[in-house]
Structure formats: C-alpha cells, structure tokens
Amino acid sequence: MACVAALFASPALLPFPSTTSSTASASASCSCRLRLRPAVVARAPREQPRGRRALRRFDEVEGVSKKRRGIGGGSGAGGSPPSSSRRDRGLAVDFKESQVADFDDLEEDKFLNAVVKVYCTHIAPDYGLPWQKQRQHSSSGSAFMIGDGKLLTNAHCVEHDTQVKVKRRGDDKKYIAKVLARGTECDLALLSVENEEFWRGTEALNFGRLPCLQDSVTVVGYPLGGDTISVTKGVVSRIEVTPYAHGTSDLLGIQIDAAINPGNSGGPAFNEQGECIGVAFQVYRSDEAENIGYVIPTTVVSHFLNDYQKNGKYTGFPCLGVLLQKLENPALRESLKVPSSEGVLVRRVEPTAPASSVLRKGDVIVSFDGTSVGCEATVPFRSTERIAFRYLTSQKYAGDIAQLGIIRDGNSMKVQTILQPRKHLVPFHVEGGQPSYLIVAGLVFTPLTEPFIEEECEDTLGLKLLAKARYSLATFEGEQIVIVSQVLAHEVNIGYEHMGNQQVMKLNGTTIKNIHHLAHLVDTCKDKFLTFEFEDDFLVVLHREEAAAASSDILKEHAIPSIRSSDLSEPYVETKNDIQKTSEDFGESPVTNFEMGIDCLLWA
C-alpha cells in the first residue's frame, strides 16, 4: 500500500497521507475489500473530487482564523465603515498599519518547530511482473522530532521508498533522511537525519499520557491546501481498539473530531500542555459521518520505540492466534459449564501459533495474566471503562509469556503460552518489498499475497483461490500458496499458454511447501520430465533439459534480468514441516477481523 489516494465508495477508513504528485493510483491500496487505506494527497485526476472537499474544509478553517484576527466581518481596521470596495468582501485593511503581525505571543509554541514536512519518492513492486517495479511517484507527509537524532512518521508515508527528504518549518533546505524501522501493523516509521545542521537549535517533543474523553487536541502537519504548517483543533471523541488500515491490525486508537486531511499523515497531535498524545494516521470517510479522524496513541508509539530499542528492529505486536466467540447467551454458558457471565469461547486455533500446544477448540478463556475477560470479549480499562480483549495482547512483546485462565470440560485450570505476531498464509505485506518469483520454461511462479490480489483484481483469481486466501490458515512455519501468475509463450510450453492464477500443488509427486522449496526441487531434479500437478487435477509436463535450454531465449525475449528473484539464490534449508492439513485447518470463518461478518466472532 503505497501512500496514494484512490477513494473508495461508501464508508472508508483512510490512514493519513502523504501528498502524491504523480500517477499513483495503481499502487495505492489497502485492500479494496477492507475499504481501509492510507489517505494521501494525490494530484492525479481521480483525486480531484476529494481535493475539492478538503479545500472547502480549509476555507472554513481559514474563515475562522480571519474572524479571530479581526480582518473580516464587514468592517475594516480601525473601525472604518464598509464600502463597495474590498471591504464588502471582508478584506478591508489599513495599509498605513503594519501588515506583519506580532508573533511574540507564539514563542511559547516552539513545539510547532519540531514538526517537519516529509518528501518521499516511491517505487512500488509490480506483482504481476515481479522482476520489475512500477512507475516512480512522489508524495509528502508530516513527521516530528522525538530526540536522539530521530523523527517519527507513518509507515505508509515511506512505503517502498527510494528517497526520503525532510524540511523544517521556516527553512528552504531539504535534508536526506534514512528509514531505520517500519512498523506495518502500527503504521509507524522511524527516521534519522545524519546532517547535524538539521538538528541545530531544535527541541524534541515530549510525549504525554493517554487523554480522556473531551480533552482538547491540536493536530499539526502539512496537509493539502498550502505549503506551510497547518493547525486544527478538536476534542477526543472516543478511545478504543481500532482497525488500522495500513497494517490490517486491531490496536488502541484515539478518535478525534479535529480536521485531518491528506498530508497530515505522521503529524503529531497535542494536548493543552503542548505534549504529544499521538500520531495522526487515518480518517473515516462516509456520507453519513463527518469529522472522524484517528490518532495512534502514545501507548502504541512507546511499544514501537521500545521494540526497536530492545531488538534493533521492529518485531511486531503479538497475539494469541485464536478465534473467539462471545458468551452472552446463558444457555451457551451453561452448556460449557461456565458458572458466571464471563469468558470467551475458543472456536479455532492457528496451527502455527504457540497457543496451539495448550489451547484447543471448546476451551473458555476467563482470564489473561490475572485480568478477568468478560463474556463480550472485553476487559477493564482505566477506572470505569472496558475495552476489547485484543488490547491486553497488544501490550505484550514478541516472545513474552502470558498466563491464561481457562475452563475445559467444566474444569478450571491455568496454562501458559508464548505470544508471537501472526503469520498469515497470504501476507498483507511482502517482506523485503520485492516479491519472489521463479520462471520455469516460461511458467512464472510466485507466492500469493494480498498486494498481488489487489493488483490483479479478485475477479481474475477464481473463487477457490480467493476462498483459500480469505479462509485458510498456515499449517506450518513458512507455508505459502504458490501460483502460476502467467505463462510467457514459447514453443517449449505449447498448450499451456493460457494458464494463469492457478495453484501448483506438487512437483514430481512432492508436495510444495513454498516457492523456495519449489526452486530447490527444480534445481535438484534428475528426472527426464518436470511434472507439475495443479489444483483441480490439471497437469503440466515439461521436458527438463528442453525447459532449461529455453530459459535464455525466454529471458531475452521478455527483457527479464534473471530466471529467479535474488532471495531464491540462497541455499534451501530443509525443515521438518510435515504437518498434515486437516479439516479444522480450513474453517468456514475468515482469517481476519476485517472479513468477519458476525460481531460475536473475533481474532485475538
């Protein structure tokens, strides 16, 4: 999901953007099906409707500002009466007076100087042609100083970056920045600037506590509508576990009514004391709702920063890897021998999650590290509030141990499990940025990923493959769905040219675990034929030596630099991942909360 803005119809969460200045529509996306994505300032023609709406908001903000300064409202400076001149339009001024306001009273707002503008150049991968990249485009967003020579911004602002530059408020010079870490789940990125001149005379922002409802909040950044810094104000409307559009995850979020527009991405939100209480990152757009923006709270920010400091990289937010059902119905609780109105029912456990060794379908989780879990999958939050159970797991770090209180067959017991980030069979983001691929006699093999699905469009994949992407869980570490995305026509593959988006299951009778395993099987094959078995019992047989001989011609004809991606050149390490798939591994429930159509089911 590059920082680009393609608007979806109807309600949509849009993480706050950078401003894109070229054709970025193809690379812009959180999944269309999720209707969640980063909001970016785009100047492509398709972005015009959104731009007009946003500009109207800016006009309203500017109008309020003018009224406060006393330069509008039908009377000129000094109280002179209105006339048919510019005064009638609320622009009356006295040119004898200085037109430069005295800003000494704003010296105390030095925290504004810690907010910088981010300029990023992106080159997103081409998932349909995985050996190349898409057209370069640029965007802009916001960031702020956090001390120790570092800046904080949104991950979607610097996704697929080739160059990142930052510019301070009131400065004409741009400085090269380096991306130190990206947190896709929490939509945060850490930047550094090596040039000492950039940091001269600057002060880092101080982080504040989690705000309360109705607390005042000020959002600062560089949104569309102008080049200088922008300030909007509002209040905290809601605090709860929120879907993060860029990371397709559920983490704590702050909902505010202050205007957030494309370009505000990565900018700080302040409380009345001038402390940073979070990072602006997404909006909810709907014809039925107004002024719904979201801020990443300091609790999530501190988790991201502590994770990086502890491990030297971002490792992610862990979870249990279980599908839970709420236990509101008394008869359901009685049948499970749950004595009180608490607990959630385990309906599915990911085979790759550590919890699979201690939890099983039918268990009821009643506590997490001593905190009681309610029958609606909520836990106590602050003094008088409750929040989603997912909040407790998100406070942990990868590798931490959690103690669960469970009821199994009417018996209460305690179990312990290690928490790790989820590993999706069909990942939402490609590690390393560039997709893996392998070309065998013109057959282009690549792993199935969400970016590939978005690029190819769901209609071209077929219902069976799409159902696997939405409903299947990985049964062992490193498992992938490997498909043939297309066939590069050549006489060696006559009869197979029209294949596309089909899953390969076996090569010469050996089940394929992932694309690296497939490359290893091809390299070590000594048989006369390469026999590929695809889903739906489709068979492809190639003469091994002829297939190898045709490779150079195919690469030359299609201007492809290599027969495989660089990561597949590494030696393949055989693992004992011989977990057999069972009917439970492919349930009827979606593998993410974004696809869930029933409120009483949720992943944690």
From TrEMBL:
GO biological-process terms attached to the record: proteolysis
Q: Which Pfam families match?
A: PDZ_2, PDZ_3, Trypsin_2
Ordered alphabetically, the record's keywords are: Hydrolase, Protease, Serine protease
Top-level taxon of origin: Eukaryota
Protein name, please?
A: PDZ domain-containing protein
Annotated region (Disordered) at: 57-89
Stretches of the chain forming a coiled coil according to its record: none
Q: Keyword check for Protease, yes or no.
A: yes
Q: Which GO-annotated molecular functions does the record name? A: serine-type endopeptidase activity
Q: Which family does it belong to?
A: Belongs to the peptidase S1C family.
| Cross-referenced PROSITE patterns | PDZ
PDZ domain: which residues? 305-373
Give the transmembrane ranges.
none
